[in-house]
Amino acid sequence: GIVLILGLIFTYLGITFFSGYFSKAPKSSEDDAFRQFTLSFFQEEAASNALNLHFTLQNPSDYGILDIPDSFGTYSSDAIGAKAAIENCETALETFSYTALSDSNKLTYDILADYLNTSKRGSDFLLYDEPLNATTGIQAQLPVLLAEYRLADEADVQAYLTLLKDMPRYFESLILLEQEKAEKGLFMADAVADTVLKQCRSLLAMDKNHYMYSTFEERIRSIDTLSNAQKQHYIHENQMAIRESFLPAYQSLVTALENLKGNGNELSGVCSLHNGKNYYEYVVSRETGSSRTISDLKNLIQKQMQTDLTSMGLILETSALPALSLQETPEQVLHELEQKISIAFPQPANVKTNVKYVPKAMEPYMSPAFYLIPCIDDTSENTIYINRAHNMDDLKLFTTLAHEGYPGHLYQTTYFTSKNPDPIRTLLNFGGYTEGWATYAEMCSYYLAPLPKKDASLAQKNMSLLLGLYALADIGIHYDGWTVADTIKFFSHYGIDDADTIQEIYELIVSDPANYLKYYVGYVELLELKKEVANRLGDNFSQKEFHKAVLDVGPSPFEIVRKYVLKTCI
Fold first, then answer.
1. Which residues have a Cβ under 8 Å from the Cβ of 504 and sit 6 or more positions away?
2. With left for phi above 0 and alpha for psi between -120 and 50, is residue 503 left, alpha or beta?
3. How far is CA 514 from CA 102, 129, 431, 517, in A?
4. What is the distance between the alpha carbons of residues 85 and 15, in angstroms, rounded to a whole number?
5. What angle do CA 407, 411, 416 make, to 5 degrees?
6. Does the pLDDT value for residue 11 go beyond 60?
7. Which contiguous run of DSSP H or E holds residue 356?
8. Which of 341, 429, 461, 522 has the greatest CB tally within 10 Å of its CB?
9. What does the alpha-carbon distance between residue 229 and residue 215 come to, in Å, rounded to a whole number?
10. How many other C-beta atoms are found inside a 10 Å radius of the C-beta of residue 496?
11. pLDDT at 170
12. For 343-365, how does the pLDDT look when each residue is reduced to its tens digit (9 = 90+)?
């Protein structure tokens, strides 16, 4: 399940890293000075655009943010500016005496140094990243984020309408970026463009039935401080903004993409691009948070798949893949999971969860499910979306709710936030850790489902194996240059031989390099660390203590997770 993280969406806006000259004023301690520095960094990053800020903080003034942005920001491919901003931040970071910092500040320092280093590598590849793709593209996620935009008072309503009116300008900067990509031979393949176009056209076809109308009306009706006449006025203004800004922005994107089609490469992995292998190595390290080389990752994946295959072979002599019949609603399943994890996981934060369904028109283009990250200063209300078009069977629904809810994304996010981390930690995106944890949680949940242990094990190993196949195919396509025929041949070794399905998988992997890797590599990195801790501790190993140590570190690259977990557990 994809987590809608604003930071992830706005990676393409060019890096807005803290670029002001940082002079260390005399403070009571190095720790105070360091926290002041990370707060400045947080303020600049969080307020880099209006949508980012709105989904990060309910009360920006509590964090010293008084200048509220009113636009989406701008797409940029300015590599020189990005690199300079990162180097400024690195220089500022290096002015601190690491040994004089507290343990928690040392951890933040380590993570920040790693993050900046990875970002600096990425500044050479700003045009290689693709903000438009089938499931995680801005064109797919933006309508959902706007439909979820919190309207607590009149100021929120006005800010929201200002954003809607900013859509044509924002999409114009996106179109300029796509045109630049096309000029440099980095535009998407026609098949990927067709998927994005189909998505945009279906959104335009909704016209007067678009959920942007109805969701706005629902939200504004609950604002008690507005009179009925004011509500009607704003409903009318929203209708105008959708007709005159939101829909025309999508229409201009459609026109631009139609004109750019044919400029892309053949449908193939990024290794076919100039410097493509180096780009893939960077993307893999950014997305997975693993410091292993591509060949080491390949070996790690194959080793885990072999372990799963062996286990399945032992079980399969007597079993078939199990089915599960759930009588409960998704909310009841989440509550049940929250109760069941208490044996092996630390106490969750006390929060509420709303389960919503993806709007029908968007079903073909959205993930099977996703969790919407709450504001860091109020995590009491959480939202999980389920996509009914995926027709999940009951077991799949159960494990998906574990991935998005307990002990997955919702649990990890709210647990970490409840520890009151340095605010900058909540903005740095480490997909390998977050998706790896959620995938690990999903695998654990098979054993929490009402199934015999043997059946649970078989279903879990089967799922793990499938994710391993996708991860290997990701490397095969993007690093080794597999064609569709190569990919069909690879999957057929494992008894998957529906050519149409594999063609679809191929297109998905091509449009989003390393996306599958962050789930599987993140999960296997956690398994490897767990084995290492268990081997060292023997009978003294505690699952709960291990989980607590991983959760307490929070989103980080795996080298740092390992360092801190070993220090805590051993």
1. none
2. alpha
3. 35, 12, 10, 5
4. 7
5. 130
6. no
7. strand 352-357
8. 522
9. 19
10. 14
11. 98
12. 999 999 999 999 999 888 778 87
